[in-house]
Amino acid sequence: MIKKWLEIIFDHKVSLRERMFRLVTGISMVALIFILILGRYTGNLFLLAGSLIYMYIVAKISIQKEAINAGATATVILLLVLFPVVFFTGGGIYGGVPEWFVLCFIYISVTLEGRRKPLFFLLCIAETLICYYIAYHYPELLIPTTTAQAYFDSVRSVILAGVLTSVLLLFQNHLYEVENKLTIQQKKEIEELNQAENHFFSSMSHEIRTPINTIIGLNEMILRGDISDDIAENARNIQGASKMLLTLINDILDLSKIKSGKMEIVNTSYETGELFSEIVNMIWIKAREKGLEFRLQVDPSMPSMLCGDEVRIKQVLVNLLNNAVKYTKEGSVTLSVRCERVGVNRVRVWYSVEDTGLGVKKENIPYIFDAFKRVDEKKNRHIEGTGLGLSIVKQLVELMNGEISVNSVYMNGSTFLVTLEQDIMNEKELGTFTLTSRTKVHEGAQYQRTFEAPDAHLLVVDDNEMNLLVVSKLLSDTKIHIDTASSAAECLKLTQYQHYDCILMDHLMPEMDGIECLHALHAQPGGLCQDVPVIALTANAGSDNQQLYRKEGFSGYLAKPISGALLEAAVLSILPKELVHLSEVASQSEIGKDVLIFEQAKRISLMVTTDSVCDLPESLRKEFGIKICPYYICTEQGRFLDNSELMAEELLSHIAEGNEGNSHPPEVEDYEKFFARRLNEAQNVIHITMAKHVSEGYHNAVEAAKSFENVTVIDSGHLSSSMGLSVLYAAYMAEHHASKDEIIKTVKKLRRYISSAFIIDSTHMMCRAGQISRKIQIMCDALLLHPVIVLRKSRMAVGSMEMGSFNHVIKGYIKKVLLHPGAIDRRILFITYAGMDDKSLQYIQELVRQYCPFERVYLQKASSAIACNCGPGSFGLLFMRKNDALITYSDAGK
Ligand code: ADP
């Protein structure tokens, strides 16, 4: 049995937890035998037998039922019961039992899990303390031992406890070493697997590209021919499907590279204007084909040269723009680029891709960056895609230490925002952007011959017969003389006798590859093509190619599958001018024709917005650029916008005549539209709402904000101008370039320091609006009571009641509110009121001056939405109490 026990302990297939449990229980059972022998109480023999049987049964059942924690708990309980018995029968501290208490702690720490571990730890400590306490105060309870016995027991226990603990530690060490070896081995295996996977993907990519090259190339030849509509449609479908397959291969290759950590970000200096032009050239025709407007907005202060991974930035933007075109039926696609200095030599660039398309449902927004995730499949099933694009985009952006976010309203459009920091290589500003590379040929454009060169000689070198055929056919309209060579050796043979104006060279060929062949060409004694430009043809995708081929001495490179238009453009760019007759096709001048280029309208990085119920004076709103989302007022005549369509006085007299008049927060869709508009003006929006338990506004805004990763909604915890105070402070912080997180933190902190107390003349309106019960209203009327409404934890509550005539009440209220002037931040006070005459307002101001003068006092009329809830004759003194949140920005609200 012991042998089997030991075998299991060393068996890697058994879970570590079970092995530890078996070991420690075994050790404890050995320990138990000795503890009980040490006791001098005759009943110990029975205890010994009983405990051993108990432990054995518990261990067996718990292992069988896979309930180790329960088994361990049952064993610990036994130990906790046993120890006091043996402690008192074994002579207390003058015996060998104390050492075994330590073993109990070890048992608990090794076998128990979760909350039970600290609980039993504490129990064990408590039990030890109690045993010692009783033994000290009531020594008569101990069975006495002689000094010789005590020494003997102690030494025996120390040695045994030591040996058993060492066994445990040795086993742990052994386990650690075994596990460590296993981990290292597994890591190696995973790496090997990854390498194999990578190798598989890149060779698969290479192998698949070659036949696709043939399909696409020959299909293009069919399309160029004089064919019936039916055939043309079939050929176009083949074209679409092959391109789709190609995108899939590229995406899978990229994903596998990123996953294995092999995707390297190569930062080089690049011309920003060139980059935008290239992107436009790749996208504009797709937009035009769908009847979409393509707009480009580039910040004129953009440095003309930056240092970054141009290829990956392009990949990210083209991917986002392709999606924008794909998922938009009508309207426009806009690429906006904005920059901001973040250091002497560094710039933060925001690229935003905006469309007026299908948008993404808010519940899908958290998933759109997941690999293989296509959201809203039902609606998008006719749109080709794999669900890989955005996952790659996000990972690429993160590899470049950037950020990506999405703001999207279903059926209204989406905006993807990418932020990247880059070093400035040339301070010169880009100025008003013009497309510089209009001559670049667009891949998707319908083929039109761009030139003829009947006197030019060109050599194509490729080991694949089909590739030779495709290139020759694709160039056939240019009337160039084309020779082909199916190996590097054949190429070198031909170049000894024939001069070529251009050579197209495959990279991967058996025996001598394209790079070796190029070097051999350059050094060929008596060769006629030593200085001839050579273009690499490659079936390997990847940004590294560009650098590799440039470094090796190629004049350019073309990735397979080769499009006819790109091939012609590449050949045209290197053929001697005198051999070329340009066609009159207008394709070149047409490129970019429909692209609308705008100067970038400046977007601020952070905007603070709020609702119309913030009761802030227009002057302050303008000064701090605070945008307002209006509440609604509903009457029998319809729905009106708070303050702009229906003013408070009008509404109050309308209600006084016995008519309806209720306020309603903006609906979720209103907030969505509001946020979408704000995001045209700002990169990020913080929206501050009325106290969340007072109005549904907060919940609607939060629901709407789920569509916008750049919108944050915060509950001010207050209403009216006290809510306005936190808005004002947040806007002030934003103006002083505080970060989003700092502002959010401060606004939350300010909730406690803003004083919101309103005195109500008549409770009728509040009762009507459901804010207080009818009973309270009747009681207030009968006793001439005026409630003071306060806000606590975002809820409205009656803070106190003032009694008597209203003038008397006003005085009492002001005195109470301004009771501790030393604690009040006296820079700004709002006296916000509804339906009060000038005399009363003057009286209030005088009293305020008397009790606690403020630097700035704003007399602010409450908005209609607030007025219809509190009724005429209500007002509040709203201010901040001194607090440490304001220290950094000490001149807030100046
Ligand atoms: P796909 O190949 O399906 O386009 P992506 O990873 O590029 O894969 O996008 C994932 C999903 O996100 C798409 O299936 C689509 O539902 C949604 N999506 C991406 N971009 C947009 C956009 N501009 N407008 C609407 N939905 C989009």
From TrEMBL:
CDD domains: HATPase_EvgS-ArcB-TorS-like (cd16922), HisKA (cd00082), REC_hyHK_CKI1_RcsC-like (cd17546). The chain crosses the membrane at residues 20-39, 45-63, 70-87, 93-112, 119-138. Keywords: Kinase, Membrane, Phosphoprotein, Transferase, Transmembrane, Transmembrane helix, Two-component regulatory system. Residues 203-424 form the Histidine kinase domain. Its EC number is 2.7.13.3. GO terms for molecular function: phosphorelay sensor kinase activity. It is an enzyme of class 2 (transferase). In the N-terminal section; belongs to the phytochrome family. SMART domains: HATPase_c, HisKA, REC. May play the central regulatory role in sporulation. It may be an element of the effector pathway responsible for the activation of sporulation genes in response to nutritional stress. Spo0A may act in concert with spo0H (a sigma factor) to control the expression of some genes that are critical to the sporulation process. It comes from Acetatifactor muris. PROSITE patterns: DEGV (PS51482), HIS_KIN (PS50109), RESPONSE_REGULATORY (PS50110). PANTHER family: HYBRID SIGNAL TRANSDUCTION HISTIDINE KINASE J (PTHR45339:SF1). This is Circadian input-output histidine kinase CikA. It catalyses: ATP + protein L-histidine = ADP + protein N-phospho-L-histidine. The modification 4-aspartylphosphate is found at D506. Residues 457-575 form the Response regulatory domain. InterPro entries: CheY-like_superfamily (IPR011006), DegV (IPR003797), DegV_C (IPR043168), HATPase_C_sf (IPR036890), HATPase_dom (IPR003594), His_kinase_dom (IPR005467), HisK_dim/P_dom (IPR003661), HisK_dim/P_sf (IPR036097).
